[in-house]
Amino acid sequence: MNRQDLTLLTDFYELTMMQGYYEEKQNETVIFDVFFRQNPCGNGYSVCAGLEQVIDYVKNLNFTYEDVDYLRSLHIFSEDFLHYLSGFHFSGDIYAIPEGTVVFPKEPLLKVIAPIMEAQLVETAILNIINHQSLIATKTSRIVFAADGDGIMEFGLRRAQGPDAGLYGARAAMIGGCVGTSNVLAGQLFDVPVMGTHAHSWIMSFKDEYTAFKNYAKMYPDNCTLLVDTYDTLKSGVPNAIRVFREFKESGHPLKKYGIRLDSGDLAYLSKEARKMLDAAGFEDATICASNDLDEFLLHDLKMQKAAIDSWGVGTNLITSKDCPSFGGVYKLAAIKNQDGEFIPKIKISENTEKITNPGNKTIYRIYDKETGKLKADLICFAGEEYDTNEDLLLFDPIETWKKTRLPGGTYTMREILVPVFINGECVYNSPSVMEIAAYCKQETDTLWDETKRLFYPHRIHVDLSQKLYDVKKSLLDQMSISD
Amino acid sequence: MNRQDLTLLTDFYELTMMQGYYEEKQNETVIFDVFFRQNPCGNGYSVCAGLEQVIDYVKNLNFTYEDVDYLRSLHIFSEDFLHYLSGFHFSGDIYAIPEGTVVFPKEPLLKVIAPIMEAQLVETAILNIINHQSLIATKTSRIVFAADGDGIMEFGLRRAQGPDAGLYGARAAMIGGCVGTSNVLAGQLFDVPVMGTHAHSWIMSFKDEYTAFKNYAKMYPDNCTLLVDTYDTLKSGVPNAIRVFREFKESGHPLKKYGIRLDSGDLAYLSKEARKMLDAAGFEDATICASNDLDEFLLHDLKMQKAAIDSWGVGTNLITSKDCPSFGGVYKLAAIKNQDGEFIPKIKISENTEKITNPGNKTIYRIYDKETGKLKADLICFAGEEYDTNEDLLLFDPIETWKKTRLPGGTYTMREILVPVFINGECVYNSPSVMEIAAYCKQETDTLWDETKRLFYPHRIHVDLSQKLYDVKKSLLDQMSISD
């Protein structure tokens, strides 16, 4: 597949609906919101990611001759409609929250304002991209939090759900806080550090473990991590590693950065024993890296048990977000422009209150405590609503409305977190580099208290509605229930 | 990303090891096996898939000028080695089990025989591709079994882990038994049926539900499934659908294939009520399709509760294999060719008996009961071992060796399931079309008794070792434990 051509990466119903709109000559401008209802993995926040790939996708939208030919072969589309498709391009506006920002349920991560035919087509691919990368960035952020300052390396490519899941998963993992990835293609395409040493097969291909270690160290004296568990970690692996470290030291050409990697067995016990052996041999600066089915829970427990591990390679459980492998972002109609050019708010009701959408053309203000810089709450309001931070701000829970907080004027700051990305089909946004996004994401998670980052039952950040948005939503709901 | 260039889709350590082999002038021919240790999701079997993409990958292996340039920029590779890479191509042999075959733990799904530098490079991408597609094909096979003959449609693109996970996930889902996919790109690339109707946004974009239905039916009279849960399934959706069906019937142009789709609420209750309403109105041939967070367990329960559902759209839980999102295939060294051209079997030991590898150059015979055609057992043996099915065959459990079965000569048949795919770097295998693979997979699952296909605690198929392979493995293990 050529990355330039994801135009047909869409659900079939987007095209049947498009033809329906086409035939009905119904192509009014609409607003769709991308949002999610729940943070994955029980987390207290999410990290949004994937915008750069969404931008590439939208820029390159284009039905080739082959695409149109294929659609014709399905015998369901008219020649008129196929002709329309062959000239298709995206002409609308897109607003989005920049990648690496911490986000919360119900917030529009991305807002498409476009003729309904265009807005409908892009639903599936936008969701696919944002759902995937936000999932992995969020999972990584949890794992990085559990590691409490130790480096996390992304090692999951072989278990990722296909090449893209490995590639863009590595991208999202770097955004979420990994220090490097084993994925060479990700290193090339996103200019991020690549890492790794050797496998068991390296050891097995030499006549013995010592010879394998010795040869590896000779090759890579600047950065030499030896995998010590091929035969027996404490009886064979660690002693052989120490022997090699010592030989280099005694030769007058000591290894620069060096250490061992544990990949099986009980990592708490083995790391502590290995640490003692390394220290006793005078190699206090040898690092211990661990891998083998790690996740944030095991990592958290190993840290509690004072495992002597300096850095962690995390594979399967990170790259698939094993306990919660989907993000659940949805794409819902929020408004339709009428003939007077006004956006008429639309709402999707549901028996489940949590599933009721927020209507209208919206934006989000993020509110910080002025003194600490910590995030206090998010406020969803209509685009264009303005606030004066010198005045008091009354926030209330949009479901349990009697729960209120008053922020005194001058004690808080606000910033709008949705920014323009496309205007009239033109891209007006420059994506930062992945490492820049990662640095920004670090700042973002620093605006959260540890209570919100806790792995279990984290403190919830409030996402409130402005009085104006709340009133419109309530009146739409009241109309709906009357018409029932 | 261009599908032609996945050469750098590899773990960094494959390249550092390659350089190590290069510098050591150590490039003997080796054998690596791809196998897995456990069926995913507690299943009784797996379905292997992904071979066609592995073939494409191997055919197109090639370090471009940009690739070499990138690797040079890492300041860890020598010019000699980079020069070697710039001329790299795969020159070895690959044997594999054809896609759609049912497979079991410990069996080599794929066997690479190549100079160690080449065999090492391809590890990561081969695992990535086989792990992903085999996972989704297996998950789909479970869901299809639970549906007991009803059609399953793959609807997961928006929740897949990136574009490839959607695309190749759809491919694997078709192999595993889906009747169609919503993924248009999968339809185009793999020539498989695409399916889908309309979303809630279609309904919401018209002045009312009836008008939306009417317009949709006018557009698609040959195949018209109306989504009935936008406002209220039984009070509004089903009555409006019936009104539209009736109007078309009375106009003398009845809809050809038509029905409704339920996407929320209790599917057992709503489907039975909707069925009564449709039947009472004279639309016994209207179909009822259901979607909304389905998996094999919910589907199984809904069937038990006699939900009146004819076909099922399955999304997130299929495309991510939610309860088990990775397949766990590994790539292990099995033999090294010595200077006399003989393969010396290699074994990777482990404290965990299940993790000990099977050494040597192996193949697999599948054994069927002659009368029923059902699969009796698989036998892993050395390549070249021959059997006469007119003679008795003694099988024994490779761990609990006292558990034995004697198959009388003439009562069983055997076939070798590993086939040549590359010989001396040339591809000698033609991949069937996806629909051909799907038909073959259906035949394959038909060789299993329902006891093995059961969702919970399925009957285990035996995978035994030949006496010769068992003896070599035992003697290698004995040597290892003595040298400890």
Explain this structure:
Two copies of one chain form a homodimer. By secondary structure, the first copy, chain A, is α/β, with parallel strands linked by helices. Chain A folds into two domains: 284 residues, nicotinate phosphoribosyltransferase, CATH 3.20.140; 174 residues, Alpha-Beta Barrel (TIM Barrel), CATH 3.20.20. In chain A, 38% of the residues lie in helices and 20% in strands. Chain A has 17 helices and 21 strands. The first copy, chain A, has a seven-stranded antiparallel sheet with strand order 13-12-1-5-3-19-20. In chain A, a hairpin with a 2-residue loop joins strand 19 and strand 20. In chain A, helix 2 packs antiparallel against helix 6, helix 6 runs parallel beside helix 13 and helix 10 packs across helix 11. The mean pLDDT of chain A is 95.
Write the layout of secondary structure elements.
2 copies of one chain form a homodimer.
Chain A: H1 12-23, E1 29-35, E2 46-47, H2 51-59, H3 65-72, H4 79-86, E3 93-96, E4 102-103, E5 110-115, H5 116-121, H6 123-147, E6 151-154, H7 163-176, E7 180-181, H8 184-190, H9 200-204, H10 209-219, E8 223-227, H11 233-250, E9 257-262, H12 267-280, E10 287-290, H13 296-304, E11 311-314, H14 316-319, E12 330-337, E13 343-345, E14 362-369, E15 375-382, E16 393-396, E17 404-407, E18 412-416, E19 419-423, E20 426-427, H15 434-446, H16 450-453, E21 462-465, H17 467-483
Parallel strand pairs in A: 6-7, 6-11, 8-9, 9-10, 10-11, 15-21
Antiparallel strand pairs in A: 1-5, 1-12, 2-4, 3-5, 3-19, 12-13, 14-15, 14-18, 16-17, 19-20
